[in-house]
Every structure is written in structure tokens, then in C-alpha cells.
């Protein structure tokens, strides 16, 4: 895209909420901050607002770039901007860093007012339900009574679904991309391996590593390596790396032999350099806990009966972490409740990460759907 299709230089904003919030686990925060960004212009009747919910390692920085760091481009910049599928010439787009995050919103790295030290291990697990409640408070602050749409991929899609259940009259459209109504046992298992790699790092110090001036980088690095394997498809790994040797010969050691090993180590090192381990722990728990059908004896149709929005669900054929059949579960449950549902199953070989890519068919589906939203 040329510069005219970018939202350009953007600046994060911070909202302070002094009203306490009681989280699903029973812990009460006396107050909290949410960092967010906005793109486009809110129209006169505030009917063109769209909320973008981020996935596990995402943030409020959805689109554009920072003037002091032009290479820091928003994680969904290929989707959001003037003339892009989510067109900021039409919509006012809001991205927010969730509670418990490590990009400015109140989280484990924040100072606990009771101790004047970082919360660390004392910061509670925040659930998808908690995030949606805090996002609703942000919407109130921005004067947005109803979202034209709420969307997200993966964990972000779970938040979009929760919005339609917690605040059915405040969402006209929900776009749930590469997501699921709950995690499978296999997905929970992958998350537990990732957590254990962090918890067993000697530098973790029970979650209070800030006091020791260290980072549990080894554990966080391994957690990201495990996670990254699940984000890619076998086809894409084979296409990008195959069995290519890093230096053309076998070393007969435990150093890097294959390109895929080098790639995973690089991704792990990069992630450990900017993400907080406590945030990773609580975010994976939020993934594990989300299950709107739990209170309905596992009946997803009954759980989704509250929804009033129109829906678009998109899945990807090679996404084995959130496979297409998980999206179809939601489609069938929503249709059972008489909802207006569109569904796209995209043939893309990039696995779970497909929702972040500029696939023409995928973006065509998104563009067409957004064009049909009246504001």
C-alpha cells in the first residue's frame, strides 16, 4: 500500500478509570489505566465506531506507525486504513491494550498502590469477560453507545463474541476471525507447556522478577517457540524451511542445524525482548477459561441465544489450532438462534497466522462485509 493508504503517524492515549472493578476471580482493582489508539473520525451520531480486539501478544497499536519509530507499524495495518478493508475514511476505529497487558495498560508491571512496587505475581488473572467490561467503560468514556462492529482474530475473536453476549444491544456487527467458542484440550495443553516453561525459569522468582532486576527470558523464549509452532501450518513450514541446513552441513551437536531451528530461536529471542512473562501467563489463562457454554451445560446454542448482532465468521483451511470446524460450531449455533450469519472459509496455507496476512480472498470477504455496514 502507498502512504495514502496508511493512517499515518499515530499516538497512543491513556484513559484513567478511578472506579474499582471486581474481576471474575473475585479480586478488586481500585482503579486502572487503559492505553488505546483511534483512527479515522467519529461521525456526528457516533454510529461509525469499530472496536478491534487484540490476540495474545497484540496491543492497542493496530494501524499506522509512530513518528519516532516509523518501523513500528500496527499489527493489523494491512487491514485498517483509508481505502483498506476496514476503511478509516468511513469508520472510526479503536484499538485498546487489554487490562493485564504490558503495553501501558494496568498490568503486572504496574505499580500496586498498596505497596508502591510492581504488582508482579499479585496481579490477578483477567478474563475475556473482564476485558469486555473494561472496554465497555472505555466506550462510555468515548461517548460510544453502540459499536457499528466489534472484531478480532483468535483471542480477539473471543472478545468480539463476548461483546455480543454481555452487551447485545451495543454491537450491530461482530466479526470473529480464526477463533473458537472455547479451547480444546490440546490447546489448553500447549498453553500449559508454555506456562510451565516460564514458571520453571530460575529467573521467574515466583512472578516477582522485577524486584531482582532480571527477566525470565529463557522460559519466555521457549514459551514463544512452542506457541509459534502452533501458529504455522505444516505446509508453510515445509515451504519456507523444509529440511534446509543453516550452514549446509550437519554439525553433530545440539547447536542449530536446520533453518527451522534458527527461525524458532530468533522468534523466541525477539519475543523475550519486549513481552512480559506475567502478562503471557495471565493471557493464556484467559484463553483457557473462555467458554460461554459452561453455564449452559455445554449447550452453545443456549449460550448464544442472547446475541442480537449480525455476524461474519472467517476460518482458514490450514489453521489447526482454531480449525474451521470450530468456527462452524458457532455458525450453526447462531443460525439456530435466527441470527444473520455470513461465513467464509479461506483456502490459505499459512495456518493460524493467516488472519494477520494480506490474503486477497480473505481481505475481499472482509472488505465486502464492511462495505455492507450502514453508519
TrEMBL record:
Q: Catalyzes what?
A: L-homoserine + succinyl-CoA = O-succinyl-L-homoserine + CoA
In Gene Ontology terms, what is one molecular function of this protein? Answer: homoserine O-acetyltransferase activity
Q: Where in the cell is it found?
A: Cytoplasm
Q: Which residues does the Swiss-Prot or TrEMBL record annotate as the active site?
A: 154, 319, 352
Q: Where along the chain is substrate bound? A: 224, 353
Q: Which UniProt keywords apply?
A: Acyltransferase, Amino-acid biosynthesis, Cytoplasm, Methionine biosynthesis, Transferase
Q: What class of enzyme is it?
A: transferase
Q: What is its main location?
A: cytoplasm
The Swiss-Prot or TrEMBL record describes its family as follows: Belongs to the AB hydrolase superfamily. MetX family.
**Protein name (database record):** Homoserine O-succinyltransferase
Organism annotation:
Azospira inquinata
Amino acid at each position: 500500500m502507498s502512504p495514502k493508504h496508511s493512517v499515518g503517524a499515530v499516538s497512543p492515549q491513556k484513559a484513567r478509570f478511578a472506579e474499582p472493578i471486581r474481576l471474575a476471580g473475585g479480586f478488586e482493582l481500585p482503579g486502572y489505566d487503559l492505553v488505546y489508539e483511534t483512527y479515522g473520525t467519529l461521525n456526528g451520531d457516533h454510529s461509525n465506531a469499530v472496536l478491534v480486539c487484540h490476540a495474545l501478544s497484540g496491543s492497542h497499536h493496530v494501524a499506522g506507525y509512530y513518528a519516532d519509530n516509523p518501523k513500528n507499524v500496527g499489527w493489523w495495518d494491512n487491514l485498517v486504513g483509508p481505502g483498506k478493508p476496514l476503511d478509516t475514511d468511513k469508520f472510526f476505529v479503536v484499538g485498546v491494550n487489554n487490562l493485564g497487558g504490558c503495553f501501558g495498560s494496568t498490568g503486572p508491571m504496574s505499580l500496586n498502590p498498596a505497596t508502591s512496587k510492581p504488582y508482579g505475581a499479585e496481579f490477578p488473572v483477567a478474563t475475556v469477560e473482564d476485558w469486555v467490561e473494561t472496554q465497555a467503560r472505555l466506550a462510555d468514556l468515548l461517548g460510544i453507545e453502540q459499536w457499528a462492529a466489534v472484531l478480532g482474530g483468535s483471542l480477539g475473536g473471543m472478545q468480539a463474541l463476548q461483546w455480543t453476549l454481555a452487551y447485545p444491544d451495543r454491537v450491530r456487527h461482530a466479526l470473529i476471525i480464526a477463533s473458537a467458542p472455547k479451547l480444546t484440550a490440546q490447546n489448553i495443553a500447549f498453553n500449559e507447556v508454555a506456562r510451565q516453561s516460564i514458571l520453571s525459569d530460575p529467573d521467574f522468582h515466583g512472578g516477582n522478577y522485577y524486584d531482582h532486576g532480571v527477566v525470565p527470558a529463557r522460559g519466555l523464549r521457549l514459551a514463544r517457540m512452542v506457541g509459534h509452532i502452533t501458529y504455522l501450518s505444516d505446509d508453510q513450514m515445509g515451504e519456507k524451511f523444509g529440511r534446509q541446513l543453516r550452514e549446509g552441513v550437519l554439525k553433530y551437536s545440539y547447536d542449530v542445524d536446520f533453518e527451522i531451528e534458527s527461525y524458532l530461536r530468533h522468534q523466541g529471542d525477539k519475543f523475550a525482548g519486549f513481552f512480559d512473562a506475567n502478562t503471557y501467563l495471565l493471557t493464556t489463562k484467559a484463553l483457557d477459561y473462555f467458554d460461554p457454554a459452561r453455564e449452559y451445560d455445554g449447550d452453545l446454542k443456549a449460550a448464544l441465544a442472547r446475541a442480537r448482532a449480525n455476524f461474519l465468521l472467517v476460518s482458514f483451511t490450514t489453521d489447526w489450532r482454531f480449525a474451521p470446524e470450530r468456527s462452524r460450531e458457532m455458525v450453526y449455533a447462531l443460525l439456530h438462534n435466527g441470527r444473520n450469519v455470513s461465513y467464509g472459509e479461506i483456502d490459505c496455507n499459512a495456518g493460524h497466522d493467516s488472519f494477520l496476512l494480506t490474503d486477497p480472498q480473505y481481505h475481499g470477504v472482509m472488505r465486502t462485509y464492511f462495505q455492507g455496514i450502514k453508519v
